[in-house]
Amino acid sequence: MVVTGGQMPQGADAVVMSEYAKRSADGTVEVSAEVHPAENVSLIGEDLRKGTLVLKRGQQLLPQDIGMLASLGYSRVKVKRRLKIAVLSTGNEIQDGPPLTPGKVPDVNRPTLLNAIREIGCEPVDLGIAGDESEVIASNLKQGIANADIILITAGTSVGPRDFVPQVIDGLGRPGLLVHGVAMRPSMPTGLGIIDGKPIISLPGYPVSAYLAFLEFIPPLVDRMLGTSHLPRPIIKAETVRRVAGVLGSRTYVRVRVREEGGGTYAEPVSVSGAGILSSLVRANGFIIIPENVEGYEEGDLVDVELFRPVERSNANA
User: What are φ and ψ of residue 243, in 5° steps?
Assistant: First the structure.
């Protein structure tokens, strides 16, 4: 008798499953199925051969990878340290949690981004809220530079009279602010600075713009810094139910609800989708990303949709 995973007896070259074997009263075994050499036997090298590359440097370890390492006798392996990403919200009107003071608005960006950082496998560092004073913003950014690998700062990055962030970043050292404005709708005021070798990403104040800029720029930045590859979001083909417009010269993110119905897959743009309408992200389950050189897609076009929630399915297809 050989249990599953057990060692083969000396001289044996096949295993008969117990349901096809019956022991007789005289001690002999009657086999009721054909048996061939190496049947039900794991051969040396059938999973991995000597010299096989098992895992590549920079590869994210999935559960099956951990199992493979265990099968090779490794209980510990060297991995990259999680990057620390600091988040600072700015604005005199921003308040951290209820009850709200009249004239104040809740800080939406910070909790959104702190959790987005966890989702990409990094460690969030909460820098709180800074008012619209250059000295206060600079002090908080210095704290982030000292304690994190990447710093995200939201709001104060446009061209208003109290949008101090670009000047503050420039005043912290060289090379300072390198990029101010990107060809992306929404999220156009996004900026990039480098201080003491640490990237500082200035994100727009509108919650949708801030989150979309995070999705576009932060995972690739983390990959570049760690030498890794993040897992991309799933992309499916869907038919547009009405025209979706792009902006020539800018990459446009269109929030859509994707559903399967009557054997087809359809993408319907969310009706209200301004940069400050956070519910548009909650109602949507994917993006149509319109390239910079495309004016838009017509009704009935087959397009790629990047999913961040499951596709909706009608009851008829359930």
Answer: -65, 140
Six token digits for residue 179: 């990029």
Residue 78 is classified by DSSP as -
Per-residue pLDDT at 159? 65
Contact 287, 306 (CB under 8 A): yes
Contact 260, 317 (CB under 8 A): yes
Distances (CA, A) of 185 to 190, 229, 234, 251: 11, 25, 21, 6
Indicate the Cα dihedral angle 62, 68, 73, 75, nearest 10°.
Answer: 10
Domains parsed from the chain with CATH numbers: 1-46 (no CATH), 84-226 (3.40.980.10), 235-313 (2.40.340.10)
Per-residue pLDDT, 164:
80
Residue ranges of the chain with per-residue pLDDT less than 50: 317-318
pLDDT confidence of residue 30: 87
pLDDT at 87: 98
Beta bridge partners of 180: 191
- Would you say 235 and 304 are in contact if contact means Cβ atoms under 8 Å apart? yes
DSSP 151: E
pLDDT given for residue 96 in this prediction: 86
Side-chain-side CA neighbours of 54 within 13 Å: the count stands at: 17
Question: Whole-model pTM above 0.90?
Answer: no
